[in-house]
Amino acid sequence: MTGIEIRKVTARIGAQVSGVDIGEPLDEGTVTALRAALDEHKALVFDDVDLDDEGQQAFARHFGDLTTAHPTVPAVAGAPNVLPVDSERGRAANHWHTDVTFVLNPPQASTLRSITLPPYGGETLIASSAAAYRSLPEPLRLLADTLWAEHTNDYDYAVPEEEVDEVQAAQRAQFTSITYRTVHPVVRVHPLTGERGLFIGGFAQRVVGLSATESRKVLDLLQAYVVRPENVLRHRWSPNQLVLFDNRITQHYAVDNYDGLPRRLNRVTVAGDVPVSTEGKESHSITGDASHYTPVVSAAA
To answer: Helix axis angle, 212-226 relative to 138-146, nearest 10°?
Structure first.
């Protein structure tokens, strides 16, 4: 391992990585350095990468086993671990979320690789939920530490609620073809760093013990800290880029500001463990079997 350079992009989240060819097999020292950088900066940007789908999967495997593409949405043909995040297929995820939190053990990390980019717009926002937690006033931190929230895919972040045509209706039906409901701690303890982060986002629809109206107010209050501009990396895509982010302690948002022009990123995610609360209690599933998507690994394992 020689020559790796890590340059912060913002004070609270994001770093540019240079001096490493992620298209080649990485030695243990390099992987350790990249993991440490990911732990610190939450999101890493790699420029001028020479990767195809297989190369993206090989890079992601350095950080753990892969999930399949998605619990309900089809993968790229011939690549069961690759999800096409494609504007032409209705995947403009212009809503804050953490990937696949409606299953028991969401991915630990996500990689996005630029395939087709519009001439303007199409940025991805990535927010540090650790910075958000740290910025909470003490009374809110104490409250959040005790809360649990139900996450479900019955709310589709990628298709507007007002389905205006048959295509959107079909996309929603596919996304919700298996209903998942999982209860996670609102504050998750990161298994590697011990940091606390707000584990909420678009799939978190109800706080356990509160009404729907009360839940929305509490979740919106906490979410407002996540999306403060100082906690957010606004990444403008360039050709041949890959972004790796820690799905356990970030949220992200695909900005729909490119007039419906073609935009595609390919996503590969790394299998994660079951979230753990500040009291050491694990998340639990209410409904939905995701074993075809990712094996369940307990944080205590």
So the answer is: 130
154 is catalytic: no
| pLDDT, tens only, 170-202 | 777 888 889 999 999 999 999 999 999 999 999
- In the predicted model, what is the mean pLDDT of the chain? 93
The residues that bridge with 113 in the sheet, in sequence order, are 242, 266
From 91, 95, 172, 252, the catalytic residue: 252
Chain segment 95-108, per-residue pLDDT in tens = 899 999 999 999 99
**Band (87; pLDDT cuts 50, 70, 90):** confident
Instruction: Out of 172, 188, 263, 267, pick the active-site residue.
Output: 267
CA distance 159 to 144: 29
- Per-residue pLDDT at 114: 98
Which residues lie closer than 8 Å to 74 by C-beta, 6 or more apart?
Answer: none
With CA atoms as reference, report the closest residue to 277 among 107, 145, 181, 152.
145
Q: In DSSP terms, which residues pair with 89 in a beta bridge?
A: none
Beta-carbon contacts of 250 under 8 Å, excluding residues fewer than 6 positions away, are 13, 42, 43, 98, 126, 127, 128, 129, 197
Give catalytic status of residue 267 as yes or no: yes
**Residue closest to 250 by CA, chosen among 233, 271, 266, 236:** 233
Options 41, 95, 97, 264, the catalytic residue: 97
Q: Strand order of the sheet with strand 250-254?
A: 232-235, 124-128, 250-254
> Is 95 part of the annotated catalytic residue set?
no
Q: Which residues contact 87 (CB under 8 A, 6 or more apart)?
A: 258, 260, 261, 262, 263, 264
**Token pair in block for residue 33:** 């350095």
Show the tokens assigned to 170. 């079909």
Quick check: is 50 catalytic? no
